[in-house]
Known about the structure:
Blueprint: H1 3-9, E1 19-23, H2 27-33, H3 38-59, E2 63-70, H4 78-101, E3 104-109, H5 117-130, E4 136-144, H6 146-162, H7 173-179, E5 190-193, E6 212-215, H8 225-236, H9 246-249
Amino acid sequence: MNKNNLNKDQIDLGRVPKHVAIIMDGNGRWAKNHGQGRLFGHANGVESIRSVLQGCGEIGIKYLTIYAFSTENWNRPKSEIEGLMNLLVDTIASEVEELNKNGVRMSTVGDPSLLPLNCQESLERMQEITKDNDKIHLQIALNYSARWDIITTVKNISKDVKQGVLSAEEIDEKIINQYSCFSGIPDPELLIRTSGECRISNFMLWQLAYTELYFTEVLWPDFRKDHLFEAIINYQSRERRFGKISEQLEE
Ligand code: IPE
Ligand code: IPE
Ligand code: MG
């Protein structure tokens, strides 16, 4: 038995998170380490997504949210942005059939309206083709930021309050969840960020309130399902107290 099988065997399948969120970081540094341009790193990150999705399927993770392009990423060089958008369209075109066969539902969170038109079309097609799948739900955060989501949520709630659909007194956590772009999706129990950076970078601020955070030095293009399994084992070793004390959890 190799080390990787051993790792997977250590996972308690009864306590696997329903939802894992990932900040896929380190593509640029990985490319540099390989003497290549940044786009080479992004292209190699696709295999990591494939492997992690497969890993999620193997252990029964139902929701996977990946941070692919933040609202702040528009500040990158134009050529990198174009390369990323083309990679997205090409990857959807080459992968959608196989993912559909494997029961993967795919959708996006974020504001697609600023993305190039061909990108928007390919995302719409991807969502339409896979909308009835229920093995695993892959959400791609694109032109997404948590503050954008909070602002949009507040605007939409305000509209409904103004129109009398909702009263201000009714606003609670459930209502905010309902109006956010993660409506109907459970909060992630685990967040993984690769590449050694220990920050949230405007990702899922509301939803991460009680999420376990896991930071690894592994650069995203090197990340595989075995790294995911390592993260899950680490997650399962933690005590999630939600404000209580240890002794209360045994009751
Ligand atoms: C993450 O890798 C991918 C995106 C943000 C699109 P980076 O491109 O941020 O890689 P580093 O952090 O520069 O190494
Ligand atoms: C966060 O990575 C965004 C995505 C992974 C899409 P960045 O590399 O853009 O984050 P910062 O700017 O270093 O915090
Ligand atoms: Mg980065």
